């Protein structure tokens, strides 16, 4: 089986040429350093009651299609990873981030910040309520558009223990044109980045539901 993770350098994804290491990585011979050992431990006290509901963080409701995204964080053996911090960030329904560098002419939504977090439960499950993000242009190449996606990060016991990945939506026609998605050589690994529509998760007359599991070591992560 080929490596499920994208390479550090993928020329079609132009910014990797600037940040990919040019020399072999040096792995320390010792264990966790002082930063890891002294870093804070995440707990429920640090989370707000609306941190996992991106649709209720402002005075009004955001524009767009409301969705529920849920799944489990599992280790390589399929065992749940409880009490781990999961963070998400995303564009709004028009494909716009609240970020100074995002200046493409799509509207901002004053009722949508596009960031949330939660801790997994005893079964490794997370749950977010949000708005389905829109596609957006990103100038990597001529007429480049990113498929709709939500960024995820999963933390260990410290900020230095972090994995970052992206969740996509089924049937997106932009998959074939996206060099980030295309940087993954293993077709089964690509499929693990795509959520599935789930009618049991769907809330009738309120929000469509999507299921997506993060399997440590198998779900492609962004190492570059």
Automatic annotation (TrEMBL):
SUPFAM superfamilies: Aromatic compound dioxygenase (SSF49482). Keywords: Dioxygenase, Oxidoreductase. PROSITE patterns: INTRADIOL_DIOXYGENAS. Coiled coil: none annotated. InterPro entries: Intradiol_dOase_C (IPR000627), Intradiol_dOase_core (IPR015889), Intradiol_RC_Dioxygenase (IPR050770), PCDO_beta_N (IPR024756), Protocat_dOase_b (IPR012785). Belongs to the intradiol ring-cleavage dioxygenase family. This is Protocatechuate 3,4-dioxygenase subunit beta. It comes from Actinoallomurus oryzae.
């Amino acid at each position: 089986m080929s490596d499920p993770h994208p390479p550090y350098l993928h020329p079609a994804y132009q910014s990797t040429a600037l940040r990919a290491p040019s020399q072999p990585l040096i792995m320390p011979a010792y264990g966790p350093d002082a930063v890891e050992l002294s870093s804070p431990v995440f707990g429920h006290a640090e989370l707000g009651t609306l941190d996992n509901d991106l649709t209720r963080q402002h005075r009004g409701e955001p524009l767009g299609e409301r969705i529920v995204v849920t799944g489990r964080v599992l280790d390589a053996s399929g065992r749940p990873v409880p009490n781990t911090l999961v963070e998400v960030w995303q564009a709004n329904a028009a494909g716009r981030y609240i970020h100074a560098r995002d200046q493409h002419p799509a509207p901002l939504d004053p009722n949508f910040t596009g960031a949330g977090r939660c801790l997994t439960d005893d079964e490794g499950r997370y749950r977010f309520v949000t708005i389905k993000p829109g596609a957006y242009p990103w100038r990597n190449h001529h007429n480049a558009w990113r498929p709709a996606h939500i960024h995820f990060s999963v933390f260990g016991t410290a900020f230095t223990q972090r994995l970052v990945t992206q969740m996509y939506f089924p049937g997106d026609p932009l998959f074939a044109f996206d060099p980030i998605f295309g940087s993954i050589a293993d077709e089964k690994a690509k499929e693990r980045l795509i959520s599935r529509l789930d009618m049991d998760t769907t809330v009738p007359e309120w929000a469509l539901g999507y299921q997506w599991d993060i399997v440590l070591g198998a779900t492609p992560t962004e190492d570059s």
